[in-house]
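Dear colleague,

As promised, here are the two records you asked about, laid out in our usual form so they can be pasted straight into your sheet.

NAME FIELD: protein one
SEQUENCE, THEN STRUCTURE:
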Amino acid sequence: MANVVLRNVRKTYPGGFEAIKGVDFEVGDGQFCVLVGPSGCGKSTLLRMVAGLETITSGEIDIGGRVVNDVEPADRDIAMVFQNYALYPHMSVYNNMAYGLRNRGMAKPEIEARVQEAARILEIGAMLDRKPRQLSGGQRQRVAMGRAIVRQPKVFLFDEPLSNLDAKLRVAMRVEIRKLQRRLSTTAIYVTHDQLEAMTLADILVVMNAGQVEQIGSPLDVYAKPATTFVASFIGAPPMNLIPLDAEGVRARFGGAVTEAGVLGVRPEDLAISSEPPAPGGLTLDLAVEAIERVGPETFVYGTRSPGGDLAAISSKPGELPPDEIIIRIPGQEAPAIGERISVVALRHNLHLFSADGRRRIAV
């Protein structure tokens, strides 16, 4: 096992495109770290740099106390699980798992023991004689993980390993990966664009955007106290409601903090439909219901801001659409009718304030 430390890591491609813009973070020994962000944010590039499949332009990558900038991938003591499984189609499951060990000159009894143990852990012992084409997507992914497990590496690297699976199987495999990592106590770095996957897997969450780290922390901390408006809108489904503010219009309600603030945030579950005013310092919005989504035990209500309420002074920046749509998340199947006008309220401690550029969280 080992910790992984990135120190001011940068990647600039020929032509000047800067894909990674100075990333710093540490994954502790045995921790499960998830890199999450939209497509093109640099998360897979960063993972490939840790693996040694991409060179770094500057900075340091340290695995287990050793700087590995110039170390070949095979010598970094890592194992990687890819999105497309990367299995040899002409080899059996057993040989796919044993191939790397044979190349390293390991003795046959040791190879046999490692493959059988990995097969037992992953419950694929009955499939060792099959070829990849005879397996389902989930079974192929188990084989790919088995090939990584037999290496007994210091660090596991996962590059969107579940993106080719259907929704039900993704959930099952997500649970299996987390159970496996905890059982083996191996440091892991996992890349995904799925924020739900990230939240459920991570010990430490690294939210990336445009080649930079927006926030690092536990999933619950990132959700409860997003550092920027990007994190606030990316982490959470549905996303946080973000409303540009006219400081003069709300100064009395939020006090001195609003002089620095330009954006108010409130999560859909923190808004309640009520005709009663909230406690002092809370928020009231008047909405016209535009759409309803019933998703089992919860209902999402989409409303458009109406004149009135506490935030009559909401404004939009030049070139932006007015921030009229508000999402409310309520329990059960009961919901107002489409076209109905409603009032929603939020308590002050559930509100979030951000600087006008969205790059800084401000205490409410």
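NAME FIELD: protein two
SEQUENCE, THEN STRUCTURE:
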Amino acid sequence: MPKFLHTADWQIGRQYSQFAADDAVPLAEARLAAVETLARLATQHQVDAVLVAGDVFDAQTVADRTVRRLFNALQGFAGPWLMIPGNHDAALTESVWTRAARLGALPPNLHLALQGAALDFPALGFTALAAPLTQRHTYNDLTAWFDGAPSPAGHLRIGLAHGCVQGLLAEGIDSANPIAPDRAERARLDYLALGDWHGCRQIDARTWYSGTPEPDRFKGNEPGHALLVEIDGPGAEPQVSRLATGQFSWQSWELPLAVASDVDALVARLAGLGGGDVLSLAVSGQIDLAGQQRLQAAISQAEARARSLVVDLAALRLMPTEADIAALRADGYLGDVIADLRDRQASRPDEPGAQTAAHALALLTGILAERQASGAAA
């Protein structure tokens, strides 16, 4: 039974500028590590070829060292690697691919299609119909020629393309680089390996997006996989299984707080984070002073355990209780200021001044709490 490993959207050389440098570098390195994992999986499962459906590189301008490192990462699998350029690394007249060729970085087992072509593999019994992008955006279906493309009798017909299946992805996705949703049927393909959508997604029995092998955004569309594709023979329905490849788990939590038990639950969830987690946390609602102190401590501890933690507390209002204010011993003028700030953010929550009041309240009560703690320690 012929077997293939389908992958795409490696985005090698991607920069994570939204993160601090000590987080951005490991995230970028994980993309190269994912390629080494793919090579290991290809060897482990004894596949006939690895199908790489575009966007190998994140940009045409990646460094020469990055180009060499990428192709060195392929060494773990000695069989054929089939690659096409995508929209990020399109096969322009002068491109990252022409530079890689000049560098002598392309390994002999790499079959790179820089223009639409049928690649025959007689010994392995399949023909690959490749539709690379030769510019970043096209507005006609580059896979249309698959329909009439000949292939040797008895060969599997494997399609390889990068773009947007029209009418089936999320709203607003239909754009450049269109692919007909029934291309596999019309072109008599046994399997159509697609790239561009970063999540793992089945379009029909013979058409799949593998998604990126290493998550790269806070979107729950099942990234971090490669697809093992097994086909009994021409015309047989492929058997597709997901293989985990991702090193980091990207998560996005948007959590409202209303009562003390909500804070308890969030603190417990933060305690479960580890070195493989990249988390975007947005907290809204309201919290008292004791809850705020517990939450800040939990966030600080989680930042030391997780790979990266991005926190947005702008929509969280500090609402000190009477007991909080009494414990701060904020009598006289300070007590009046705290009460006024609390009233302002509570009575006009949608006005710009409410957020200013919330920040001022947090600062003032935080300073008083710290002074009180320092005095107690002394």
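A couple of things worth noting about protein two: The CA atoms of residues 167 and 174 lie 7 Å apart. The longest helix spans residues 352-377.

Best,
R.
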